[in-house]
Design brief:
Elements (H helix, E strand, L loop, with lengths): L6 H16 L2 H6 L2 H17 L11
Helix pairs in contact: 1-3
């Protein structure tokens, strides 16, 4: 029998992508280190897990 897919891998990938999305220069320059962690956690909760963010694709 083949290996069962591990559900944590999908969540981990989504969280990693969400962190990359949040950690743009504007946010890094704006927040203190402690506030950045708090804001990032809220962003991940709302956008990645809650699905309440709508990302527009950037056109070149």
């Amino acid at each position: 029998m083949g290996k069962q897919p591990q559900p944590k891998n999908g969540i981990t990938a989504l969280l990693k992508r969400g962190r990359r999305t949040f950690r743009v220069p504007e946010n890094l320059a704006y927040y203190s280190e402690e506030d950045l962690k708090i804001a990032e956690k809220k962003f991940l909760s709302l956008c990645v897990i809650g699905g309440k963010c709508h990302h527009r694709s950037r056109s070149v």
